[in-house]
Design brief:
Blueprint lengths: L6 E6 L3 H4 L1 H6 L4 H20 L3 E8 L7 H10 L25 E5 L10 H7 L4 E6 L2 H14 L3 E5 L10 H12 L2 E3 L38
Parallel strand pairs: 1-2, 1-4, 2-3, 4-5, 5-6
Helix pairs in contact: 6-7
InterPro entries: Isochorismatase-like_dom, Isochorismatase-like_hydrls, Isochorismatase-like_sf
Keywords: Hydrolase
Organism: Streptomyces bauhiniae
């Protein structure tokens, strides 16, 4: 499946350890909010498939052996146990199963989907220009992925009904993503959900026709 017009649905960390009852108990607001967001994220997967839009899954594996020193130090200080350990039920997808041919990229104890081996290369090879992002959590892995996507030149849409934050107030997180990354905040009910927006790149400026004068005085910064 090629992705409709350069758009893919990226499903982030829709896994049991982040979405089941124990995860809901850690959720800062009404635990039902997490269940609803996870259910909506699973639902938009079927919606994308029906529209002929490619679905790309990103999963997290948090085994101690995958963790860097700073991650292990943080967990020890906060008494956090590793989540989504390889081979565990917690690492399995929640409410959804990748279909034959759908790609799954793995993050090893990190937040950002672009740190998963081959993720960016795959998007480039497929001619993707816009990521529609669903999954958990808005203020952690969804934010990290959207931030890097923006910096690498991809357009980003965040499905606000298919994600929820873990630590920060939702309006704050979403407003930040909209203002800083230019993220388009929308829902799975959007009739233009899978559309590709026209490029906003400016045409190259024409060479100046002014007569040549003395070269301007400039200063340069040289790396020290």
């Amino acid at each position: 499946m090629s992705g409709a017009g350069g758009v893919v649905l990226v499903v982030v960390d829709l896994q049991n350890d982040f979405c089941d009852a124990s995860a809901a108990a850690r959720h800062g607001s009404d635990p039902r909010v997490l269940a609803e967001a996870a259910g909506a994220a699973a639902g938009v997967v079927e919606q994308a498939r029906g529209a002929g839009v490619e679905v790309v899954f990103v999963r997290f594996l948090g085994d101690v052996g995958h963790q860097g020193p700073s991650w292990r130090r943080r967990d020890a200080g906060l008494g956090k146990r590793p989540k989504c350990v390889s081979g565990s039920r917690g690492a399995e997808f929640h409410g959804v199963t990748p279909a034959a041919g759908e790609r799954v990229f793995t993050k090893y104890a990190c937040f950002d989907a672009f740190l998963a081996k081959g993720f960016e290369r795959y998007l480039r090879e497929r001619g993707v220009v816009r990521l529609v992002v669903a999954g958990v959590f808005t203020d952690v892995c969804v934010d990290s992925t959207a931030r890097t996507a923006f910096q690498k030149g991809f357009e980003v849409s965040v499905l606000t009904d298919c994600t929820t934050p873990l630590h920060l107030p939702e309006p704050v997180v979403l407003s930040f993503m909209e203002r800083v990354y230019g993220a388009r905040l929308t829902t799975r009910a959007d009739p233009d959900l899978w559309a590709v927006y026209p490029s906003t790149e400016e045409e190259p400026s024409q060479p100046s026709m002014r007569p040549a004068g003395p070269a301007p005085v400039t200063s340069e910064c040289t790396p020290g």
